[in-house]
């Protein structure tokens, strides 16, 4: 039975991913800041729920010590939203720094902390939930702080693909689509169920050639 | 032109080349009193030195007060760091390798290389808009090119330059209506304090090439990432 660790598993794409992997017989470690308030997550059979604030790096290290199983798939899903969008002339640099910690540094920290768990597993996959908004080639106006943290996450993915290849670990970024979550809002075009199913398929299909790539949730590659 | 990090390396060479051509240059660096090369240029040309640590946004605001509404044709965000300790771009940056995350150091690099250029552009946008050329330049690096990176290493620096390119692209879109051209430069691996003595290019070759690129810029180039040799660098 393969094992997946999901951050930000209490809602949205993380929650739906936990549901779908658990339903498929996977052993799921679902992490969120407040398990007491995560009734939908705790209600899923086959999910071990862990309290984790991904920006608290000491607690990331503690969790890595507590979990002894090999981790086949690390799904770095936790992220902070593009709102407020912080338009030009109204930047909030403290908030930008916070976004950078959540969206860029924390996934890197998770990979460091669970490197050994991945190395001991059969599948050895890291999926970083990025965003098309982090595609430099695709950029349009505004929302720079959020975009920059996702572009930086894509660089983490690409640069780590070289380091992790030595351990035959495959790492990629995945754009979840514009999803009807708390982050995406009600008029978004993709359901959490479809997005999570798409991401699950990308994860399950990830061979060596997926290393260092940026995928859409539908499986095509996206430009940097 | 207003240029940051003008006391040495690439920044100093831009001043050295452009000042004799009659450019009026506001040259910024952390310690003008120690910047003897810059001082020598200021004695001969229209070069005004300003104390500016770009990581200290209060100092950016203070510089804005000093310059007031002076038009700035070219705002050149040249200042950048590899890390807060000064070292050259060697292959053994053990503090920027996988498995040795130093989040505070990483954030310090982000502040200087990514956030400070954005702050400079926010504070001086009206000065640039009031000028003839209306250009904002970012000193980026191919190390920040996701498509070119396959090696790992220099994570702090690499991600900060990737994020800077994203800042550049978004500003190019945001400021298009005001007629402002925004672009990133890749200087090549150059024999500066950062690049080290074994780098491939002399400062003269690198800046000579970049000056040609900058002089040829038109509004159609906004949003591009161009190397010292005139070639586009992949994202």
* Chain pair sharing the greatest interface: A-B, 44 and 44 residues
At the third CATH level, what is the topology name of chain A? Rossmann fold
What is the string of SSEs of chain A from the N terminus onward? EHEHEHEHHEHEHE
CATH architecture of chain B: 3-Layer(aba) Sandwich
Major pleated sheet of chain A: 7 strands, parallel
Q: Could you estimate the helical fraction of the residues of chain A in percent?
A: 25-40%
CATH architecture of chain A: 3-Layer(aba) Sandwich
CATH superfamily of chain B: NAD(P)-binding Rossmann-like Domain
Please mark out the parts of chain A with pLDDT under 50 across 5 or more consecutive residues, or reply none. Answer: none
How do the strands of the widest beta sheet of chain A line up side by side? 3-2-1-4-5-6-7
How many E strands of chain A?
7
Biggest sheet descriptor of chain B: 7 strands, parallel
The total number of structural domains of chain A is 1
């Amino acid at each position: 039975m393969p094992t997946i660790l999901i951050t930000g598993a209490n809602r949205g794409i993380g929650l739906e991913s936990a549901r779908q992997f658990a339903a498929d017989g996977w052993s799921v470690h679902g992490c969120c800041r407040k398990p007491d308030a995560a009734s939908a997550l705790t209600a899923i059979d086959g999910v071990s729920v862990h309290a984790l604030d991904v920006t608290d790096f000491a607690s990331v290290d503690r969790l890595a010590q507590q979990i002894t199983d090999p981790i086949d798939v690390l799904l770095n899903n936790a992220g902070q939203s593009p709102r407020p969008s912080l338009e030009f002339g109204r930047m909030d640099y403290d908030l930008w720094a916070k976004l950078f910690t959540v969206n860029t540094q924390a996934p890197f920290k998770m990979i460091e902390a669970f490197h050994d768990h991945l190395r001991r597993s059969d599948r050895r996959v890291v999926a970083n939930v990025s965003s098309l908004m982090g595609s430099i080639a695709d950029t349009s106006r505004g929302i720079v702080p959020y975009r920059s943290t996702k572009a930086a996450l894509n660089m983490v993915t690409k640069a780590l693909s070289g380091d992790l290849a030595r351990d035959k670990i495959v790492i990629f970024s995945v754009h979840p689509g514009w999803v009807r979550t708390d982050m995406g809002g009600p008029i978004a075009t993709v359901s959490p169920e479809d997005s999570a199913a798409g991401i699950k398929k990308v994860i399950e299909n990830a061979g060596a050639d997926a290393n260092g790539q940026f995928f859409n949730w539908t499986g095509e590659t996206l430009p940097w | 032109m207003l240029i940051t990090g003008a006391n040495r390396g690439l920044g100093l060479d831009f001043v050295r080349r452009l000042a004799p051509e009659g450019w009026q240059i506001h040259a910024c660096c952390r310690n003008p009193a120690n910047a003897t090369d810059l001082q020598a240029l200021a004695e001969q040309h229209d070069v005004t030195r300003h104390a500016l640590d770009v990581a200290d946004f209060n100092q950016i605001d203070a510089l804005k007060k000093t310059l007031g509404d002076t038009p700035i044709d070219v705002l050149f965000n040249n200042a950048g760091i590899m890390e807060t300790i000064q070292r050259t771009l060697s292959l053994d940056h053990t503090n920027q390798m996988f498995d040795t995350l130093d989040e505070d150091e990483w954030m310090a690099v982000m502040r200087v290389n990514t956030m400070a250029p954005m702050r400079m552009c926010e504070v001086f946008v009206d000065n640039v808009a009031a000028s003839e050329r209306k250009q904002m330049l970012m000193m980026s690096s191919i190390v920040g090119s996701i498509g070119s990176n396959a090696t790992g290493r220099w994570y702090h620096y690499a991600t900060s330059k990737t994020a800077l390119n994203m800042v550049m692209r978004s500003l190019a879109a945001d400021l298009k209506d005001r007629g402002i051209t925004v672009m990133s430069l890749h200087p090549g691996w150059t024999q500066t304090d950062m690049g080290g003595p074994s780098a491939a290019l002399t400062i003269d070759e690198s800046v000579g090439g970049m000056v040609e690129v900058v002089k040829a810029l038109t509004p159609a180039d906004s949003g591009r990432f161009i190397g010292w040799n005139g070639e586009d660098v992949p994202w």
